[in-house]
Amino acid sequence: MQVCLWYLVSCPAPLLLVVYYMKKLRLPFYMLLLLFIPHIAMQFTDEVKWNIGDFFIAGLMLFGIGFLIDLVTRKIEKKRYRIPIIIGIVMVFVLIWMELSVGIFNSPLAGN
User: Fold this and answer.
1) Rounded (10°) CA dihedral 35, 37, 41, 42
2) What is residue 80's predicted lDDT score, i.e. its pLDDT?
3) How far apart are CA 90 and CA 86, in angstroms?
4) How far apart are CA 69 and CA 89, in angstroms?
5) For position 5, what pLDDT does the model report?
6) Alpha helices in the chain (DSSP H)
7) pLDDT digits (tens), the chain, 112 positions
8) Which residues does 62 contact at the CB level (< 8 Å), separation at least 6?
9) 109 contacts 101 by C-beta, under 8 angstroms
10) Of the candidates 92, 105, 83, the residue with the CA atom closest to the CA atom of residue 65
11) Distance between the two ends of the chain, CA-based, in angstroms?
12) Are the C-beta atoms of 46 and 32 separated by less than 8 Å?
């Protein structure tokens, strides 16, 4: 038994696996952390009224923008191209978010 425990402690492989998965789970962790903001606001005020569908759509959008920005930063090496693409992704995200929340374009997707 002691040999197995010593192997797990002394071998860097489990530690490397933990570091590998922590890097992979960093993006979903930050996105979930952002979703806690409206949840906490709902506890203190009646002006924030989200249902489960709102959280699902917001989570889907946050994971989508996080994935796209991560993809752009990994695949595009030149900052000259990377920064305008990321700015464009963020602008599209903000426009969709505003349309879903208050309906600035009066589309059928707008909130009530």
Assistant:
1) 10
2) 94
3) 6
4) 8
5) 46
6) 2-10, 12-44, 52-75, 79-102
7) 444 444 445 555 555 555 566 666 777 788 888 888 898 998 999 888 888 988 899 999 998 998 899 899 989 999 999 999 999 999 999 988 888 877 777 777 665 5
8) 31, 34, 35
9) no
10) 92
11) 63
12) no
Tokens at 7, concatenated: 């192997």
Q: Is 69 helix (H, G, I), strand (E, B) or coil?
A: helix
Of 39, 64, 65, whose CA–CA distance to 54 is shortest? 39
Q: How far apart are CA 16 and CA 19, in angstroms?
A: 5
Task: Copy the structure tokens of residue 2.
Answer: 């002691």
Distances (CA, A) of 63 to 10, 43, 73, 91: 36, 24, 15, 16
- CB pairs under 8 A, 24+ apart, for 25-28? 27/63, 27/66, 27/67, 27/70, 28/63, 28/66
